[in-house]
Every structure is written in structure tokens, then in C-alpha cells.
Queue: 2 jobs
Job 1
Amino acid sequence: MDYINAENITFSYDEPEAAERHEVLRGVSLGIRKGEFVALLGHNGSGKSTIAKTFNAMLLPSGGKVYVDKMDTQDESVLYEIRRRVGLVLQNPDNQLVASVVEEDVAFGPENLGIPPEEIRRRVDEALKAVEMYDFRLNAPYKLSGGQKQRIAIAGIIAMQPDCIVLDEPTAMLDPRGRTEVLDTLHKLNREKGITIVLITHYMDEAVQAGRVIVMDSGRILTEGSPQEVFSQVELLKKHQLDVPQVTELAYRLKAVGFDLPGCPLTIEECVAALEPLLKKATVGEAYGDH
Amino acid sequence: MIRDITLGQYIPGKSFIHRLDPRVKIIITFVYIVFIFVASNFEGLLTMSVLILGILLLSGVPLSQYFKSLKAILFVVIFTSVLNLFYGSGNVLWSWGGIQITSGGVANAVFVTIRIISLILFSSVLTFTTSPTELTDALERIMKPLKLLHVKVHEIAMMMTIALRFVPTLLEETDKIMSAQKARGADMESGGLMQRIRALIPILIPLFVSSFRRAYDLAMAMECRCYHGGEGRTKMKVLHATSLDAVAVVVSMVVCAAVVACNLYFPAVLH
Amino acid sequence: MAIIETKNLTYTYGQGTPFQKTAVENINIAIKQGEFIGVIGHTGSGKSTLIQQLNGLLRPTSGTVLLNGKDIWEDPKKIRSVRFKVGMVFQYPEHQLFEETVLKDIAFGPGNMGLGKDEILKRARAAAEFVGLKEELLEKSPFELSGGEKRRVAIAGVIAMDPDVLILDEPTAGLDPRGRDVLLSQIVTYHKTRHNTILLVSHSMEDIARTADRVLVMNAGHAAMFDTTENVFACDRELEKMGLRVPQITKIMAVLKAKGYPVGTALTVEQALKELIPLLGKGNRNHD
């Protein structure tokens, strides 16, 4: 069994004025393995936020089951066990910090868990160092940049020593620098502490760096696989008005007009490497007048 | 700009006063404020003023900060002292028409002025040397006995913490909304009272809406971090009184005793 | 003549206090009527301070802003009329909605201009159409709409004032790819139909490359570059030094060129294809 298991879950809620129930999730099954870095893509309303909230029992599915570390999220007696293991970071960095001092905010989670004071102190320091915000521990959150605030929010989760962090569009409100800070932090946590990451994002360049990509559409999984497997389906993604990295699109369209490019490049380096042999052949051919 | 308003103007430091247990600081401040009013003559009041001066110097906070907080209430000080000038008996020093100033009036005015200034300086020491979180934390602990009366002490303290956390955020937001409405031609600088009140609607409604959105987000974030009220909750920072606090308490008791003694041996100024 | 011009424009926050900080220093730019200008620069580079001076929300510490050749602060009492001519859409503009209905909210700007009732409604409806808001939404409360729809209502609220210059501060921030594409193409259509001047502030170099005629690069309070989009994005090294990047496709062509291949520059995938296909065409096609 995977670390998080969603088994055929559905989710719907009553719309006050509409006659029918609004279906957000229409039967989704997926597993998240321990130590994975998963990117969840999809438009607003595709159900990706909803599914993320079922992973830490913030929402319970209308149908189907979600298991976290073999615990049923519907079992209320293990509610805080689940929330300690699976932390959730939200989009707006301003709205999820509780205290007026950085280190006291990070301590909020462990304090709720009833951990002894010396142990909280140790965890808070460690968490702040892990997100490289230790020097800011006595600052007021409102004076920090968006990227820094979001890293404090991540530290607040880490201090609860979770197995998995789910992030609901954590970079949507950040500038490019803040986005890089947050993404680098997540990769470091995944690599060095083995923390499972589920990253919900609209940015394809963030998804490209993940180990696995899941694309949601209208409450269902549209496609999933390695970034190469997913982004090579340019036609499918375009049809659903989802973005494809420019390099991938370039390679795809060159292939479409008949050029023989290997693989599915996702980065500039990969694309250049794929184009170079063809360019060499063409320019050398020209030099020798060989058409 | 609205953003420049600062609340809970904590000035970090490592002085003797900073290091005192916030519970002790709150209680001493409270007792001192009471005794400023208990002191009925210059002897007693000056004893306290000397103590306050000592505390100001010990706090390591630049004296200019204290002047700033005095400046803010300068009007109140002048107003009350001028008012007191005309009360009281004694030798007439100056008179004009029915109005006269007596030596007793001057004494009254000086006395009241020292009283107000001491009061302000005292409360400033508390807010300058104690962080907002320390304050709410200490209040929560001091009020703990009230739990027996079913007062929701933890919830009140949590509300104070959150309020303090969001004040700067909401001020910044107000600034942004004002700019946005001004860019749409909203006129907030002219017109009569009613017109100006009406001009606030485009600012207040978005502010309310966003506050609710923030509250919803925050509640969710708190639940995600296993918040379930004060039950079984621990604190990272444990407050414990040290020998420093014992010194502070002893000094305070001596000063208060001195004030009482002065009241007994010297005549009162105000009648 | 330029529609908007700045002369030695400088803005200092908290002047005379210990926290004094110059956000924008000695900016001299001229924007022609009908241009589509992209403004880039990372947070703290001074872009926000600059654009807020262009419509008189901030008053320059020194220097002037000329609108149609006239100093906008010549008569400070008339500054509101400048804001009608230079419209400004802030970041996350949906947070400024407050009226009972969508139509009333869009009409707030034109209403402040002192126009007649019919004219106000006409403008509000036209603006709603520009941003693709359906008729049936106009009588709804703006708070019932989806995030993307709210954003469009807010933008319509500024368009309805029919400004000569429209400044948009990251209008697509936080939208999903579909919402972003739709909004961006609506802005382009609006520009083409009205022929007015647009300043688009964005962190997305791909969006800037797709839309702008010229690009203003802000760095540390200065106008570091102000040139055609091609020329600006040709300076990938300089931009990277300022913590900015160029579109992925532009970078690829630059890398290939640096390696000695005879390729030109490209701002979009289409342009890159136009460059690469003839070049690669020599003996590489499967169907040859």
C-alpha cells in the first residue's frame, strides 16, 4: 500500500441555488509513495485543491476512502495523527501565519501537539535552519517577502515532523525569486529529509522538476506519469488549454513537420542537445554543398 | 501614510527590564499605577518619579522614544495642568477679573502633571520592553484563575495574538484598497461629512470581505496545524520568575511602603 | 509628441526620516501614443513606485510627469482628472470590488467622472463586453463570481473610464493557464480596437514577449533598458545579472547562436520555427 491512498473518491457539495449537486471529484484513485515528489496540475475547478484537502482530512470524500499511512481519514480518533503526518501549506502566505514573531509561529504546531518546551525549541531551530530562515527567527512576519513568509509556513509544518507536505499553489502569489526560493527549499527537504512532497501548481517549469506529474481535469485524472511522459502529450495538454514548456512545444512541432528529434526535451539544455546533431548535419551539409 | 502607524511598539533589547518575567512586569506596572494615585503629596510622588527615572535608564530604550510617547499626549498634559492651575487655595499670585491663580493652584498643576507623566512613562516601559506575544502570554497565565468562572482565557489570549499579528497586514491592505479606489477616481478629500462617510464605503466593504477571507484561510491553516483549543497545549517559552524578579518585587514593595509612609507623615497636596 | 513622458523623475520614501529610501531615481522615458510597453524588473526594482507616479497616486519627490506635454501636478486640485486619463489596474484588483452588482461596480469609475447616467451605463456595458463578461452576470453580486470573473470585472471597472493610457500591474497573477491566456488576448484585442497606450507590468517574460512593442527594464530604481522587445531580450546576459530571465525560446536561440549556428533571434515558438525549419530542412526531414 502506498503512503497516501485515495480509492475511487468522489466529492460534491450542494450549491445553494443550483438544482443539482456540484461534483468536484468524480472517482479519483491515486497513490502517493513515501519520499516521492509529485506535481499536481490542472485548471481552477479541476478538483486538485479538493483532493489535496482530503489528504489531511480537512475534507472527507463524499464517496470512496482516503488512507494515510494505513489510517482511514474518516476515523476521527486518528485525526491529529493524520494532520501531524501530512501538513498542508496554502496559497496566501499572509493568511497562514498566526504569531507576530517568526519563531513563535513555527512553534504553533508543536505546541498544539503538547510537546515539551525544550523539544519544541530544538525543533523550531532545526525547522528554521532547514528552510534557511534561522537568522529571521525574531522578525515580524509582515516585514518579510512573500517567498520568506512561505518558507516560514513550511517551517511551521516541518516542526511537526511530518512525513509529507501538501502545498496548494504555494507559489501563485510570489515573484520569480520567491518561487525559486520555495521550490529549492522543497527539493532540499525531499532530498535530504526524505519528506514526501505533493505540489499543486499552475507553473509548468515547477512541474517539470517533479518526479511524477498528475494532471487533473473536471474532477478526474487526465493523465499521469514522469514529466517526459506527461509533457510529450502536447496535443492532449493543448486541447485542455494547459501549458507546455516552450522547449517541449518547439521539439514537438519540429517533429510534427518531419524532423527526427530524440525524446521529449523539458529544459533548455535537453533541447539544445536534441537539436545540435541535426544542426551539425545541416550546416556541415551546407559547407560541403551536399544537398 | 497609514502604514507608518505602529502598534505595540516593542523595542527589542536585553536589559534587566527586558529580562523580567512579563507576569511580574504586568503586576508591578499595575500596582505602580495604583500607587501613583495613592501618593497624595510631593514626597511620595517624587519617590516614585525617582524610581521611574531609574527604570527608564535601566531599560536601555533610547530616551527619545519616551519623549515621543509623551509628545503624543502633550495636549492632555497641558490641558489638565492648566485646568488645575485655577483650583486650590493659598496665596493669590495673580488675578484678572474673577480668575485667580493661587500658590495652591500651582502646586496642584505641578502635582497632576508629574502624575500624568509618570503614568505614561510607566506604561511605556511595559510596552517598550515586552513583546506583544509575551504580553498576551503573560495575561493568559495571570487570568488563569478566571477559568473557574468559565471565562475562556485561552481563547481570549489567542484572539489577542491574532489581532496583533493582523493589524499591520490590514493596515497595508487598507492602503492598497485606498490607492485602487483613488485610481478609479474616488474622491476622499473633499465634500461634507456625509459625503466623506459615503466615500468610505468603497474602502470598508472590500476590507471586510478580505478580512473574512483571511479569517477563513487562517482557521484552515490553524486546523491543519492540529489546533484544537487550549486543552493539552504546551508552550515553547516557559515563563519562570528568577532572582531578578525577586529583586524587582522587593524594590517595588519598599517604594510602595515609602509612599504609604509619606502619606502618613506629610500633608496631602490635593484636596 | 509623447503621450507620457518623465523628466528626472525621483521618488524617495520617508524623506527626512532615518528610514529614507530612494525607490526611483532620475527616470527619463517617453512613451508614444498607441504603444504597448512591457515593464519588467524584480520586486523592489521600483516598478510599482514608477507606475503609481504616472497616474498621480504618488507625487514625485523631484522631477515631472508630463501627460500630453503638460505637468500632471501643475494644478494639484485637478489630479483626479489625470487618473481618468491614465487608468490603473492594481495587482489582484478583484480585492477592490464593493458594489451590489457587477454593473454598478464597473460603473463606479465613470460615475466619479461626473458623466450622465446613460453614458455611464453605456460605458460600463461596453467595458464588460471587452473583458468577455456575459450579460447575465451583470446583475449578479460580484462576490458570487469565480476568481477569474472577478478579476475581469475589476479590469472592466478601469476600462470603463476609457483612459488614454492603461497601466496593468500583473493582471494575470494567480490565474490558471486558461484564464491567463484568455485575459491576455482580451488585453491585446482591447489595445488593437481602441489604439490606446498600454503599460503591462509582468513577471512572465513569455507574456511580455508575446505582447509588447517595447520593454522597460527597471533595476535598483533606475531605468536599466528601454528598447524594442527584440533588442531587450537579446541582452540575456545583462538581464540575468539583474535577476531576470528571457523567454525559454529566446534563450535557446541565443545558446545555439553562441555555439556558432547561423540562427536569428526569436520571441515566440512560431518565430523560432521560422528560423529553424529552413535551416534544418537540409537533409534532416524524414520524408525527404
Note: Residues 94 and 101 of chain B are 5 Å apart (CA to CA).
Job 2
Amino acid sequence: MFYRLFNYLWPVLLLTGCNGDVFIDDFLPEPKPIVLSDTEGNVSVRFNAENWDILDIESIRSDMFADARDTSGNRIGFPIENEENAVIQYGNEYLDLRIEKNSRSELNFILSENLYDEPVELDIKVGNQYTSKTLEVSLSPTQKYQIDSIVYQWDKFKLYTNNLEEMDAFTVDNTQSSTPVRWTVFPYRYSSRKIEFYCPNASWNGYEYTRYLGEPLPQIDIPDVTDGKPALQGTKARLGMECRNLETGLDKNLEVEATVEAGDRRKIIVYNQMEIYDIPYKAYTSNPRTGKTHVFSGTLSSSRPYDYFIFKQQLTDEEQ
Amino acid sequence: MNKTTLKLILPLLPLLSSAAHSHAGGKDNGARKVIHTAGIDFRPAYLFPTNSFLKGTYGTETPGKASLSGHLKYGFKFAPDTYLGKRYPHAVQGIGIGYNTFFNPSELGNPLAVYVFQTSRIASLTQRLSLDYEWNFGASFGWKKHDENNNPLNTAVGSKINAYMSLQLLLDWEVCEGTHLRAGIGASHYSNGNTNYPNSGINTMNGSIGITRHFGGGTEERRIHSAAQTFKPYISYDLIAYGATRKKGIFPENSSPIVVPGSFAIAGLNFNPMYNFSKYFRAGLSLDAQYDESANIADHIANEYLPSDPNEIRFYRPPFIEQFSVGVSARAEIVMPIFSINFGIGRNFIGKGDDLRAFYQTLALKTDITKSLFLHVGYQLYKFKDPNNLMLGIGIRFNAQGK
């Protein structure tokens, strides 16, 4: 009986095969946007199947680079096939994203830092020979660095005290008068202490400072000069490439009279006598979240008025 | 149908003799249980121009409006003193072979059909003349199938082996004792049951003339009116499990139709209580569950861009509910010895997607192996026109009565 039953059943059993070749597993049915930030710096994406490769990483930014390595540390190119595990370091000086593929069904995204002030968007293309899907990744700005210490190279301190800086100039024509004329000048009205942090490796506008340290930039102690020697006395200036104008402590309303005699014609020039110094500096910074460090180095230049000088120049016939 | 058909038909042939023995129970063991018959038919036919190839649009070698077939048949009927002989005194069943020519051997071939048949009387017209029917079901071998390179115009036949089915209405004239001249008209259909593409198939309308000879059996049974057997209506329950494979074509938007490579699996289960109104007829409702691996795949194309090469197309496997359907159909069944022909029309009420939200129609041949076990060979259409799938399986009949 069973033999007979089987005899009639076998055609059916033979014919009920599956057409598995035309079906592929949907490795990622509904890709969800991935957002990485300070608080969510590690995100894993689970795949439903293993039939996917990492095809490419795309970003509208042209200054990003992907460095993919296999488990032995050898550089590999895209596509990265599913069979191999890999680590991709993506970013640049200001962006550090690590993509780890430690299994055939998972991708881990680890955002170390995004020092840009806006989110960085990138697309991870995954797929196979038939289809591809895009993982949209948004990297939110992460915490900025903070200054750990400032180190000045005291032995390279250079001081210049005999420089004059012209603050004001005007001509007084008293040739038609029979009496002297007195002009009041304010030698410190426009005076300020100028501070510059010159950095040879920074860009012209010094955006590196704000990328790392945020805005407003932090204030650091700068040296003052006492008896010709530099010393930290609590004066602070904001780090950065822009020239900083500090208060001098001099009386901006100080009035000085300049007299031009009757029948005379003079050009009155107001000078500040400047104390100028240069000193190499290093600003050690670190990211409190990641522990990564960065050092800004350059030369601090300070130009501080400490006295004035009024020069009454007699004009020659040609100059008249 | 090709190999499918072959695998289907081959078990049917030995089954006939087996079934004959299992069904032909007589009172007298020494009495003859079956009466053998042999016959020969010729059937000139008209081919319906159901596709552009058959219409001759492409300038085929012969437009193919006609065909001719010759048939040799062996059959048997149950002896008058057997249970089935009394119940179905005119039913003859057997096997036949038919040689076909479409007068276009290079593009269509000259297929040979091997089939089972059954014939019986519809009505007695005179003492020697009756109106009979005959159906044939089997496989036809030796077709020249569509081939893009070697037979590109033939878009009607997609397989070397195709299913063959035919229905004839015949006038049967007993010219002398045991010898019958039969003539009539009929219709035939050849196709592969959607197991390969193309699957337009060949449909013919034919005339038929032939001679049948009964060996033994004494006087013509037509004159024998055995005592009327009493029939008490009852309910039987058919449980059928079937499977098959099928091809699938999809019609993507803004793209040419694509024939999906490979064959998809079909599996189904029918539970069909039926009221047996008479010895010839039963009807009822059927609960039909079916899994179709190809259902709704067009909604789950995986390729980012449709490939130019159909072999490159891939799909995500649809959710189960888009491949599995449950429906209810009304069934009517003509009951004859060994064979029953079942018609159904139904609608799915479980199942998602365009491929499953549809009316379906079924036609099935049930071949009794024992009183309670039968082979099931069926075909399902959607929306009265769309070929869907074969249904090849076995069935168990609960509360079967008779011998």
C-alpha cells in the first residue's frame, strides 16, 4: 500500500521544488537614517542577510578621505566584500568616523569627533550585483577641545622698546596770525595693546582655532614685561589669528598742548612709544570626551604703548 | 508541461489496469470482469488562430489553419455482471495514442499524443444509435518549441512536451454486433500548463470518424437494461494535496514583459465536501488553500534597474501572506468509473496582492486508485483567462460509498 502510494506521490514531490535562484534576501528592508552625536556616538546597523558589500562612501565634501584596512592592516579598496572584515577610517583633520565591519551582518559606526560647526552628511552605499541601498549618516557636531596649558619659550623672548608708532598727525598753519596758537592733542586716545598669535601652519583666517576650540575662543594668559623681563601677571587675550586690541591702562583723555608760533606752519605728529616683544608659544589642547589632543604653536607678538612723543615738524617750501 | 506531463501521465497508464482490477468486482469470480475494446479514429481539425503565429502574421511556412490526427485506442469496459458494469454499462476507458500533423513540421513538429480516455453514452437515440461523449487527457511529445534563434516565429508552443486534452461528441452506430462506427465533432487543447513560456498553446475544433470493436461481451449492452440500482444520496469528503511548478511572467511598468527564469513551486490543499446527487453527479463547496512561490513577486523586484537580460532579474521573497491564499469554490463533479471530472469556480478570501485577490477557476481529473484514494490532475485559471498553475496530487475520499 505504501509502495503504491509513494509510486503515485513521487511525481508531485519531485515537482514541488523551489525557485530559490531568483530570490535574494533583502539585507536591509528599510534603511533608517543614522545620526551620530556626542550622546549617541556608537551606532550599529544589523543586516537581515549577508549578501551585501560595502560599495562606497559618498559625501558632498571633497576634503574627506576613506582609509579602509583589512584585519591584517593592509589597505583595501572598495567595494569591500562581505566575506572580509574591515575597518574604515573616514574623515579628515576635523572629522573622525570609524566604520567597523566585524561580522557579515553588522556595521558599527563610531563617531570620535566632528569639529565642524554643522552636521556632516555622508552616504554609505551597500549592496550586491543586483541592488544597492544607501545608509544615510549624519554626524552632528561634537564637543570642542579645551586648552590644557600654555607654554611660552622664555628663552626665545625678544623685547624691543624704542619703536614709535604714529597715532595722529595734522598741520597747523599759523602764518597769517600774529599770535601763537595752541592745539590740544590726546596721545593715548587711539592707543591699544595689540596681540597677535602668529601660527605658520594655520590658514589666513585661522579657522583651525575655531574648529578645535569653538567660539568665542578661549582667553589665555599672556606675558607682561616688567623691568625688561616677561612675566605672567594675569593679563589675558583670546587665542586666534585675529589681532587683539587690549586696553593699555593709559589715560585716553590725557591732554597735551602743542603750540605753533605766529607766522609758523607745522605738522604735528603724535607718536606712541611702543614696547614690543615676540615669544614662541604652544597651546596644548585636548578633547574632554575623546581624550584626543592637539597643539597650536606659533609666536605671540605684543605691541604695547607706554609713553608718547609729539613732534612738530617744520614744513619746507616744497612741503607747503 | 513537458517533463511534468510525462511524470504525470506515466503513472496513469499502469494505474488504469490496476484500477480496472481493483474496481471490477463481480459476483462470480469465474466470470469475465472486463470487456476489451480497440478503436481507430481520424480527426481533421481547424486550428483557432489564437496568437499571431497561428494567424500567420509573421509569414510562417504554413499559416497553420488545419491539422489532422490519427488515433489508436485500447480500452475496456466493466462486464455487465460487475458492480461498475451495472452502474455504468456504457463507460469505456483506456489509453490511446494519436499522431498529429499541423502541416508545419519545421515550426510545430508532428507531435504524438499518449493519453487516457473515457467514453460513455449521453443518450440513446435508436436501438443502435446513441449520442456519446469522449474525453482524452494526456501528453503530446515531439513539438517544435519556440526558440529565439531556431524557431523564433512559433510563439504558441513553449515546450517539447505539452499536455493534451480533448472532448468529443459522437454519434455511435452499432453497425454489427460489437462493431461501432463513431463520428462527431470535438475540441482539443495542447499547452504546457504554464510551466514554460510561451504558453499560448494550440486549440483545435475537429471532426472525428472512427471504428471501435468490442471483444466479447455477447449481445450489445445497449439492449441490456440491468435492474435499476437504487442510489441513496450521501455526502463524501475529498481531501486533496497537490503540488506543481509554474513559470512566471511579469509586466513591469514602463518596461517590456519579463519571463522570470526558473520554475516556481506550487503547493495546495483542498477540502471538498460534496453531496452525491446521483451516481453521475456530485457537487459541493471546497476550501482551497494554496502556496504560490511566484505570487506577487512583481511587487518585490530587487534590482535597482531592470536588467536587459531576464536571467539577471532577482526578487525579494514576498511576505507569506502575499504567496499564500485561502479561498472557497463551488465544485461540480461528473462521476464515472475510475475517473471523475471536477469543475470549480471560487474566490480567495485570504491572501494579499493582485495575484491572489482574484476569482479562480479549476478543472481537475480525478483518477480513482481505490475507493478512497485518487490521483488528482488539475489546472487553475484566474479571471477565466489567465493560466495559473497545475494541480498534481493525491486525494483521499472520506465516506466513499460503493465498491
Note: Helices of chain B lie at 2-23, 52-55, 83-87.
